[in-house]
Amino acid sequence: MKHFIVTLAVIVTLLSPSVGKQASSAKILNEYVQYLFQKRVDDLKETMKSIQTKTDEPFLSTELIQTLNGVLVPDADLPDSLTELKELQNEDPESLYYGYASEPDYAKARLVAYAILQKQGLDGLGKSSDPRALVIAPTSVLMMVYANGHGVARNFELAQKFAVIASEALAEAEGMIQTLSSHKESNWQGNDFRLCAHVTSGYMGGYCQKISDEKESANDDKRFSQILNSWTRSEKAAFNQLKKISYSYFAAAADADTDQTGTLRTAFVIDARRSQISGFVNLLEQLEKKDVPAVTGEDFQKSDQELNKVYKQLMNAFPEGGMIEHTTINKSDVQIAQRQWIRYRDAWASFTQLKYPDISLEAVKKLLTDQRVKELKDVLNINSVKDQTI
Could you tell me the pTM of the whole model? Predict the structure, then answer.
């Protein structure tokens, strides 16, 4: 009930037309941040009750909680006006902080993070199917901004407050709180305190893998831009079609070929897709440099026969229920992915004929086929490893 009243007070104040900048920014932000902080403290305490012995020293001590309750967001760190606040609410604080497509902009990342929290306080998190995901992005960015002193006065206690809110698991909160306490005591002046250095939960593992993937995707775009810079319009159009077909296959294969048991399933799928995309970019660069090994038709046929053999072995490895026991890998998904792979291979062949007519189609198809053989063998290996561990 207390949390509801706090949130209602935030909404009423935000809707008031007479509210000035200080009330609509600092006061509202602090009330909403305090609501998120207290809610997360309550959740973490419940977890501690179930695992903590009487001799354990809780890292979230009463003294620390009281201290962090009194830590407020500085007025000077907030957007200057309601107009600026609204303009920033739809931007991405992670992209700005990590510098996916350009250099990091820590000052704007901070302003965007606060603008998003303002909007959440007004809209309410109940509308989201995954409210934790909405909170982690802005609060983790603010935690790192204050811990590292990026464009603001370093504030370890405010960083700790945001660390509690951003944490997904008890061990993550404990690790970040203790590291920040140590940094405060030693007057640490570094700039490499990171959320993803303290991951212990599967959820946060997937979240951090997504951040890594976003960085790699921005780098991919730069590499594509350099390669396509001198291409004709028709060549670029053909490449975009190839890319669309390829990325569709990568998503299907990552989902079908990856065992998604365990809490790190999201991270595993993202990593598998990233590996596919990296191979795609590397092959394009190989073709641009004409760095493709000479291959005969017979060489390709051998690879194609090996693919058919391994695929048949995999299909036969599935039990009657269609799913490899103790995994999430099922026969129908692998079959769908394999059909998409054939379309992917043929798309590469068509594109190669258009853009690189002097490069052997057999060479390109052999590279793609050998890679698919390796992937299917990896799935077969999952089956054999599971059998040995049962």
Answer: 0.83
